[in-house]
Amino acid sequence: MRMKKGIPHLLAIAALLIGLLPAQAQQELMISQYMFNGLLLNPAYAGSHPYTSASLLHRSQWVGMEGAPRTNLIGIDGPLLDGKMGVGFTFQHDMIGVSRDMEMAANYAYRIRTGQFGRLAFGLKAGLSLYSANLGDLTYWDAQDALYRNNISNAPVGKFGFGIYWNNEPSYKGLSIPTLYAADGKLTVGMAGSPDHYFTRHYYVNAGHVLELDENFDLKPNVLVKFQPQAPPEVDLNLNLLFKQRFWLGAGYRTGDGIVGMVEFQVNHMFRAGYAYDMNTSQLRHYNGGSHEVMLGIDLGREPIMIKNPRFF
Q1: Residue 202, exposed/middle/buried by CB under 10 A (0-12, 13-18, 19+)?
Q2: pLDDT tens digit string along 238-277?
Q3: pTM score, two decimals?
């Protein structure tokens, strides 16, 4: 298989094209600023703040590579019943090679107090994904392979996810399975090996803690472990420094993939803005200019005085 323009860097993304290598394809969210956008990873995060919060994010991955992934995200959540429950909505649009995936999901969290040590939340996610793949845009050698004969246009796929999230003022821990089950049987018709599902389960475990250094500086280490049974585990290690409760400066390392630099600025009590740049350390670095990610956060109903108690996560 090859795409119409057979230059070397296109081969690097061939494994990401929908339906060609279903076990190894990047199916779940890939972002670098997840530590400021917990709802995008875990439905149990919904309503974890005493105000309504929204995030808008765009990611252009592997800039300069034809067909490279691009992602647009919107997430909004808020508390109900004095924080005992939380609800949220996420919208995700992914473009990878010849494939397009538009997902809309509702998130619900039920939160209980764990004594004086914080709150524990259990979350559910229910969504609908509209999946498309323009297989006619590919040039391939095996003209008899039925897999490539028909395009997929807005195929509906129901998805359900689950998460657990615990937090207190300086710490958080989470476990989530964004796609616990997907009603995607029609997408697997004609695939080699006839898999039961195209969308596979990805497991996320993450944690972070804020250390107060002095009146001007706070340090926030955090980690995210991503596991998919048919691929090697991936670990994100990050360290962010907060200056005067307004400006975050951070760096991270993603195993087998690259290093990340990021900044976030608390503009006022309502708006946050962030940027991240990923640089590959694998062989892909020879074929792309890195990945860019921009984020805008909006907190509604957050009192101006609360800026003195910054949003750590």
Answers
A1: buried
A2: 999 999 889 999 999 999 888 999 999 999 888 999 999 9
A3: 0.84
138's tokens? 């590919």
Structure tokens at 127: 């969504």
Burial of 9 (0-12, 13-18, 19+ CB in 10 A): middle
Give the contacts of 247 (CB within 8 A, at least 6 positions apart). 263, 264, 265, 266
Nearest Cα residue to 163 out of 202, 208, 114: 202
Compute the distance between CA of residue 155 and CA of residue 178 in angstroms, rounded to an integer: 19
- Quote the CA–CA distance of 18 and 20 in Å, as a whole number: 6
Q: Locate 90 and state its tokens.
A: 């996420």
Listing DSSP states for 200-221 in one string gives ---EEEEEEE-EE-SSSEEEEE
Alpha-carbon span 131 to 92, nearest angstrom: 12
Of residues 41, 73, 18, the one with CA closest to residue 202 = 41
